[in-house]
Amino acid sequence: MKALAVHPGKPGSLHLREVPVPALDQIPGGRGVLVKVLRVGVDGTDREINDALYGAPPPGDDFLIIGHESFGVVQEVGPAVRTLAPGDYVVATVRRPGGSFYDHIGFQDMTTEDVYYERGINLRHGYLCEYFVEDRDYLVRVPPALGRLAVLLEPTSIAEKGVAQAYEIQRRLRIWRPRRAAVTGAGTLGLLATMVLRLRGLEVTTFGLQEPPHRNAELVEAIGARYVSTRQTPLDRAAAEHGPFDVIFEATGSSAVAFGAAEVLGKNGVLVLTSVTGGDKRVEIPADRINLGFVLGNKVMVGTVNAHRDHFERGAEDLVRCTVEYPGWLERLLTHPVKGLDGYAEMLHLLTNGKGAIKVFVEVAEG
Ligand code: BGC
Ligand code: ZN
């Protein structure tokens, strides 16, 4: 079968290769599920892997099949699989357990180990290929009503985990009735976080660089949130106008914005950081002011990465709700389809210079 792979460590090595179709019995205990890949989304992580800033091959291989935002249909199941059947639509989670206590209890997204195993990213092959096999426990069944929109589930799971962490942490307040949320960043994750927070009934202000009118601003407004361009209104001025923010979800990809957000968080508030910042950027920050604000305001800042399968399940529910409450909205996120695995050069081009691209994705097969 065809697969899209890189040679980790070698910049610009993305290529199409021939690999064997994986066998069901590669998964022990009869728990194997063979999945035919239908659609795969790509994001900045895939670009960074191709730039050799990130990513490692599975032990014994000198290549890594990329792609971690999966959507497929079950073809065949092992004898110990009762919850999935051929014809079911599924999305696979990304991280696999390592050795820490958290990994052992199924919370590999909370691993304390430095090494982590992520399909399509680190030490495990991904989903940009024709078929993959997986343990039934790492597959999430998606409602047929969602159809091919389910390719948005993996990025949605990241938003769900961030929001769930915020609510979990805020149980410290006994009663937490958040009213106003801010989302910094209006890319795919920022938009999905805006959607998740709107579905929780919050008033949401979403910040992006670009001045409206443009598609991302329209999408924010289409679900009843407010879009603010930080070129027109800086974060602190907007916070004075539209805050105080009980929760801020940071999804710009910039560590500098994270500290800007810390400065404007409301009292008793929680700031959720999701940007994976691989560089070594340094910025000057008003350290006394931020620290004082956190101390006197009982504020929390939390980092979050990856997602537990619960967050995929909650994500599937919210995506279905989204199709009902905001019809047509998710379709508008899927801006740049690429036809077939053969289209990988175009995929890469869109990922690097795609003007106005929200979600670039590969149509691997019909079905
Ligand atoms: C993926 C996450 C992953 C993170 C770090 C993101 O692009 O969506 O699942 O944990 O990268 O590798
Ligand atoms: Zn990702």
Low-confidence stretches: none
Shape: globular
Discrete helix count: 11
Proportion of residues in extended strands: 15-25%
- If you compute it from the alpha carbons, what radius of gyration comes out, rounded to the nearest whole angstrom? 20 Å
Overview of the structural elements:
The chain has 367 residues and is of the alpha/beta class. Helix content is 29%, strand content 24%. It is built from 11 helices and 20 strands. The strands form 5 sheets. The chain has a 6-stranded parallel β-sheet with strand order 15-14-13-16-17-18, sandwiched between helices. Strands 11-3-6-7-12 form a 5-stranded antiparallel β-sheet, covered by helices on one side. Helix 3 packs across helix 4 and helix 3 crosses helix 9 (309-325). The chain is globular. The model has no long low-confidence stretch (mean pLDDT 97). Beta-D-glucopyranose (BGC) binds next to helix 3.
